[in-house]
């Protein structure tokens, strides 16, 4: 450097040095590979071994997939077409696609109804998931369960209509009496709704037309991925509010409420889901008055909801515990009552902390819906293990079928996971 | 009170601050235990409207617990507390009513991190007072201007400095138009530079005649603003006096020791 003075400590820069590009080995792909793949000799060896494993796998799987047959009617025919070459018999998926989605006894001319319900699900879920959308869309979300029920099960519209009116009646009674005391409003509302539903049962039986607008489909005819979606969506959306109530109840200062919640959570968490499903399938019938028909899907929904709500309650309890005590005190000191403090201050923060845990439970719950196949319900896995694999046409097509099931589940679960990550970023207000 | 433009002059003439004869808070024979530990012992205190009381004492002396009893953040087991003419009972509606009349500022601000500054300030007026949103926002902006941070209204608490957060906390309390303000060591978690901005805000409040109970170690503030200083030790009120007398001529030995320790350097 010409402008430094060798004999003096004092130094003044008189001109700015030009910007230079980094040396060749320190930029671009070369730098990335050196740093990430070959930073040390053992890492280099591991990279080569991993590349070899990936190559071997791809060398087997890619031709198998690329050479797949999509348009034959049986395994034998498919093998004939393949003629000894490597290739998958994806034709089982294309031939049985409707069965995989809707089960084998849902009337095929009515497939449009659950398909429409599925499409509408996105419209119903959107205002809940993306809260920047106009709040008025929530009206459709509130109506969606009844619309979807009517579309999928069909029958007289009176059933979902009375179910909806019953809830409205319960709410009116609740808001009438809640000012006196919460317990009176709550139990009064529940009681009013139950009485209304009980009475409306007779009205429905008397008024229901012989030929309803939408043909009725029985619960035992539900199947395929549709059944997994029904169970997954219903149970997740029911178990989240129930889990919140249980988590708050476990923190309650009232011993009776606290112990009911603790015992419920600990008992349910201590029992395998499969046991609860057997209970739903078999044992529950013993406790019901003889002659009552209690829908199997409803029983399964109750059991799965109880199971996952216990887990969600514990996840949310973790979120509640993570909040500083000062948040409760600040809410209290402003004169907010318990319900306001929880709804406006505590739960928004606790739920935000709990998002990863809740999503974990939700994804697990969705996949656990395949367990209903062991109580002889024909969900996606039940369909594959039962009717499809045991048919003479497709006996032995394991890989292709279970791959298809994996892809269907993966798409949904990965979607949930991606949404939750977006939600966490969207709600992050602390380090902007 | 909106029109008064308070001076930033720190040498406030305290004699101009009026104290009325009307009683704001009375505490009679109050005792509190944590389990078997007797944390507050026979507290008797009357606070007049417009009075500014500074409570000091060593840590663990029960000073925070005392002011937290006034808005029922802590339960007391014996004695009577009357706030603004309302006897504090265990009835939740009664407690919520008193809390909405009594503002409180905490050592760690306790702003709601998931809400903007403005939302922090409008939340309680909207939900507790049922104020229309627009009106609540106007009130909130008024008080945010008063604590000199109106431009931060749409930020989140995490983006503000400690001193700014504490001033927001004060504004948040003021939005409920409280008649009494409690301060629980409002400057203890702040850098020295930020202490002044918070104290200035509190001095302005005092000038406007707010009834204030303040737990603090800021003896300069006590000297300047308080019209009574209370010294607590081991759960008891050991000494109370006018600030001049209290600092220059403390009566009890324990007070003398405390003052010599905190003013000694």
Would you mind describing this structure in some detail?
The complex is a heterodimer of chains A (432) and B (265). Chain A has helices at residues 28-36, 41-66, 75-82, 91-102, 112-129, 138-153, 158-177, 182-207, 224-250, 255-269, 273-287, 296-322, 325-333, 338-368, 380-388, 398-427. With 432 residues, chain A is an all-alpha fold. Among the domains of chain A are: 24-48, no CATH class; 160-208, no CATH class; 218-388 and 395-427, MetI-like fold, CATH 1.10.3720.10. The two termini of chain A are 44 Å apart. In chain A, 27% of the residues are buried. The mean pLDDT of chain A is 88. With 265 residues, chain B is of the alpha/beta class. Chain B has one domain: P-loop containing nucleotide triphosphate hydrolases (Rossmann fold). Chain B is globular. Chain B starts with 22 loop residues before the first strand and ends with a helix. The A-B interface holds A 324, 326-327, 329-338, 340, 344-345, 348-349, 352, 427, 429-432 and B 71, 73, 92, 96-97, 99-104, 106, 108, 110-114, 123-124, 127-128, 156, 158-159, 172-173, 176.
Give the topology, please.
The complex is a heterodimer of chains A (about 425) and B (about 260).
Chain A: H1 28-36, H2 41-66, H3 75-82, H4 91-102, H5 112-129, H6 138-153, H7 158-177, H8 182-207, H9 224-250, H10 255-269, H11 273-287, H12 296-322, H13 325-333, H14 338-368, H15 380-388, H16 398-427
Chain B: E1 23-34, E2 37-48, E3 52-56, H1 63-70, E4 78-83, E5 86-87, H2 92-101, E6 102-105, H3 117-127, H4 133-146, H5 162-174, E7 180-184, H6 192-207, E8 211-215, H7 219-225, E9 228-233, E10 236-241, H8 243-248, H9 253-263
Parallel strand pairs in B: 3-8, 3-9, 6-7, 7-8
Antiparallel strand pairs in B: 1-2, 1-4, 4-5, 9-10
Helix pairs in contact in B: 3-4, 3-5, 4-5, 5-6
Membrane topology (chain A): Multi-pass membrane protein
Main location (chain A): membrane
Keywords (chain A): Cell membrane, Membrane, Transmembrane, Transmembrane helix, Transport
């Amino acid at each position: 450097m010409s402008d430094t003075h060798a004999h003096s400590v004092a130094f003044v820069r008189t001109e700015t040095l030009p910007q230079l590009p980094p040396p060749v080995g320190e930029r671009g792909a070369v730098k990335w590979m050196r740093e990430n793949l070959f930073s040390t000799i053992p890492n280099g060896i591991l990279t080569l071994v991993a590349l070899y494993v990936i190559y071997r796998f791809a060398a087997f799987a890619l031709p198998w997939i690329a050479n797949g047959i999509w348009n034959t009617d049986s395994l034998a025919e498919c093998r004939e077409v393949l003629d000894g070459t490597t290739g998958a018999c994806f034709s089982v998926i294309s031939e049985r696609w409707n069965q995989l989605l809707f089960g084998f006894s849902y009337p095929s001319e009515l497939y449009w109804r659950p398909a429409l319900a599925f499409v509408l699900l996105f419209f119903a879920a959107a205002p809940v998931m993306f809260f920047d959308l106009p709040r008025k869309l929530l009206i459709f979300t509130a109506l969606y369960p009844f619309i979807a029920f009517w579309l999928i099960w069909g029958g007289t519209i009176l059933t979902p209509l009375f179910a909806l009116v019953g809830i409205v009646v319960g709410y009116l009674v609740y808001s009438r009496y809640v000012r006196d005391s919460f317990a009176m409003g709550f139990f009064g509302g529940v009681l009013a709704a139950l009485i209304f539903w009980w009475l409306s049962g007779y009205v429905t039986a008397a008024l229901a037309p012989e030929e309803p607008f939408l043909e009725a489909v029985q619960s035992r005819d539900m199947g395929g991925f549709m059944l997994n979606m029904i169970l997954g969506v219903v149970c997740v959306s029911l178990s989240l509010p129930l889990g919140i109530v249980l988590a708050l109840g476990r923190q309650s200062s009232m011993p009776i409420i606290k112990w009911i919640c603790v015992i419920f959570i600990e008992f349910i968490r201590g029992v395998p889901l499969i046991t609860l499903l057997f209970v739903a399938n078999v044992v529950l019938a013993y406790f019901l008055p003889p002659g009552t028909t209690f829908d199997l899907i409803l029983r399964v929904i109750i059991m799965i909801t109880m199971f996952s709500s216990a887990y969600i309650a514990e996840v949310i309890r973790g979120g509640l515990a993570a909040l500083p005590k000062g948040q409760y005190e600040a809410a209290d000191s402003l004169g907010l009552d318990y319900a306001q403090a929880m709804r406006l201050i505590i739960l928004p923060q606790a739920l935000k902390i709990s998002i990863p845990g809740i999503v974990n439970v939700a994804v697990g719950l969705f996949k656990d819906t395949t367990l209903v196949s062991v109580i002889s319900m024909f969900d996606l896995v039940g369909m594959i293990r039962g009717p499809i694999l045991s048919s003479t046409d497709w006996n032995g097509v394991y890989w292709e079928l279970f791959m298809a099931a994996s892809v269907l589940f993966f798409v949904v679960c990965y979607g949930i996971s991606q949404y939750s990550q977006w939600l966490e970023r969207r709600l992050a207000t602390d380090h902007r | 009170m909106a029109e008064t433009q308070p001076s930033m002059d720190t040498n406030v003439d305290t004699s101009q601050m009026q104290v009325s004869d009307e009683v704001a808070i009375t505490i009679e024979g109050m005792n509190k235990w944590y389990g078997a530990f007797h944390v507050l012992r026979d507290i008797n205190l009357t606070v007049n409207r417009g009075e500014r009381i500074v409570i000091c004492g060593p840590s663990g002396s029960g000073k925070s617990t005392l002011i937290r009893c006034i808005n029922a953040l802590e339960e007391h087991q014996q004695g009577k507390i009357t706030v603004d003419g309302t006897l504090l009972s265990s009835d939740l509606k009664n407690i919520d009513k008193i809390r909405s009349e009594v503002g409180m500022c905490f050592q760690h601000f306790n702003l709601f991190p998931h809400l903007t500054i403005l939302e922090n300030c409008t939340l309680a007026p909207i939900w507790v007072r049922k104020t229309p949103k627009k009106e609540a926002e106007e009130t909130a902006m008024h008080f945010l201007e008063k604590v000199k941070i109106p431009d931060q209204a749409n930020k989140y608490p995490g983006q503000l400095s400690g001193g700014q957060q504490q001033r927001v906390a004060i504004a948040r309390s003021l939005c409920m138009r409280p008649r009494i303000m409690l301060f629980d060591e409002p400057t203890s978690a702040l850098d020295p530079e930020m202490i002044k901005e918070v104290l200035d805000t509190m001095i302005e409040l005092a000038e406007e005649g707010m009834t204030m109970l303040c737990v603090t170690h800021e003896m300069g503030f006590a000297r300047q603003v308080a019209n009574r200083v209370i010294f607590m030790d081991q759960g008891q009120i050991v000494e109370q006096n006018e600030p001049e007398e209290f600092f220059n001529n403390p009566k009890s030995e324990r007070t003398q020791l405390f003052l010599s320790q905190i003013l000694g350097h």
